[in-house]
Structure of Polyamine deacetylase HDAC10:
Amino acid sequence: MGTALVYHEDMTVARLLWDYPECEIECPERLTATLKRLQQRGLEQRCLRLEAREASEAELGLVHSPEYVAVVRGTQALGTGELQALSGQYDSVYFHPSTFHCARLAAGAALQLVDAVLTGAARNGLALVRPPGHHSQRTAANGFCVFNNVAIAAEHAKQKHGLHRILIVDWDVHHGQGIQYIFEDDPSVLYFSWHRYEHGRFWPFLRESDADEVGRGRGHGFTVNLPWNQVGMGNADYVAAFLHVLLPLAFEFDPELVLVAAGFDSAIGDPEGHMRATPECFAHLTQLLQVLAGGRVCAVLEGGYHLESLAESVCMMVQALLGDPAPPLSGTMVPCESALESIQRVRAAQAPYWTSLQHQDMGPVLSPSACSPEGRPLLPGGPAYMEAAAAEAAEAAVALSSLLDRLRLQPPPPVRTAVALTSADTALVLPSGVLHQEGSAPREETEAWARPHAALAQDGALTALGKVLNLVDRILDGQVSSGITATPALATAATLDVAIRRGLHLGAQRLLCVAVGQLERPPDLSDDRRILWLSIGGQEAAAPSMFHVSVPLPQVTGGLLSCVLGLVLPLAYGFQPHLVLVALGPAHGLQDTHGALLVLMLRGPGGGRVLALVQESKPQLVGALARALHGEAAPSLGPCSVASPEDVQALKHLRRQLEPKWRMLQVAVTRDRRGNADLSTRRTLPEASSPRLPSWLAGPRRTH
Ligand code: X5A
Ligand code: ZN
């Protein structure tokens, strides 16, 4: 089961035939450049290639009126003047004699992808299509879109495959109002869209794109709009939106299928979006979605008009669909005030419909007029606006090209997953492609590292330690992405201790330790700010601090999810560790699927470098972690229970303490008594600059 890539060359035929600057950007090169880059990267070759078919008129009729389909069918026979006249009846649309054929292929590609994934022929996939679809409506073309590819695919999944819950994630920079209208009263489709909004001053200028539109009738709470009121949103803003808005609702919704209206005009350099998210961000967003619906993620291309940025972003998404680790995110992970304000508003608007948002601190909800003056957009067209736009475009071009240089130096590790077992576990059958780690650090070296620990004195523990040391080395030198090691039950704490020291010794400047169960932070490292210690279900820290956080183990799935989305991942993404160590210690009490979910989601912030330590003789747990990390099976959580009031309280309390320092935890703007946004407390972290690390691991320089 692999990743499907659905495409048809004919979709490059339609193009603009007259002078119409607004539509120029929707050009055939969008597809050819993207496909070429996928081939250059060897990604296309790794996919299951499917040739797109045309959607039938009955399939178009799942969403569109027969009259509208007939109008589009009629364009095949029109001359240029007539095409132009008809186009003028819609907003930002152009027709070409091949448009009907192309648009049927685009819808057909989405249908084929959904069929492939729902019949098990593919695990996930991407349909590379044009024209795009998310603006098109039952009886109207709109915003380059002719047929609503994603909406047709969703309706088909309901009717032909009997699905009851479909999540649509629209990360295009424009509001997919077409999808919203089609499903606004339908509780079986949860539609999430973020979009450039600027208080209604950005196309398509709709009141109903704002956060307070939540759906109609039975569909109340199933439309989720996250309007961006400023341009320049970046990686931290997008990840925060996923962790604090989309994912809590998505887990609660428990979709059977995830459709992505995958527009990349929300990426850096795009002339429409003016946003700042870098291509790797889309690998992270994709990975975050893959924990839903058993990994059944079907992406359909929407916008994306900067050819370089589009091609790179698509490659990143396909890499993630194929299961490759995502490169670390660049830039400081602090969401901006305007993003936080939007996040706060949508959480408040949705709270009545979603338990995962209830009993949380909402803070005062700000009316649009409370917007800070710097938040006001410049008026489009004015000289200051044009100047700012030009400067921004130049800045984006520089950022993008230096970023691409860095990405080229950073191939994914040859081994995705390695497992080091002790002799007690050798019977375990691992998924194919997972490496059995046999290599070990030299005996003498291992003994030297083990010396301070009585628990590592016996032979079994020492043998396991040798393998762990070797695995830490392979992960940090880029040979292996993630690893799982088994240790004798009594040796977990000591092995973790040594793994931390080895990581530091090799020059890792930021190490995240997620310790589940009874494990203690090494006392002599208690002040070491290179280590962020996060204890789940262990003892309270004697001296809790920014770098030592303890939280009780949530008892049910709902509680665990709030903990992971609301605390663990924001801390992890904010810390940007070089290595993540997850240790499941004595009495960890974590179910296998929960353990797998935790480890899987921690792949993102660590650039894929995760080492899990578990006690030996837990073959089901090791197997679950290996399958999850290897991309073979997403842990399926099923319908999600509600977090207990104690868990909610504990989290709320912790977040309040930590928020000023770890800004990724924030779900609301911070304001002083006079109502000004608080822009103080930029956190400082140890710089990464060790000669022992490959240069790319050091990541970009931070600016404070
Ligand atoms: C699919 C998409 C954008 C239309 C912009 C019209 N459409 N000004 O990105
Ligand atoms: Zn768009």
Observations:
- Residues 415-633+640-658 form a domain with the Arginase; Chain A fold (CATH 3.40.800.20).
- The longest strand covers residues 189-196.
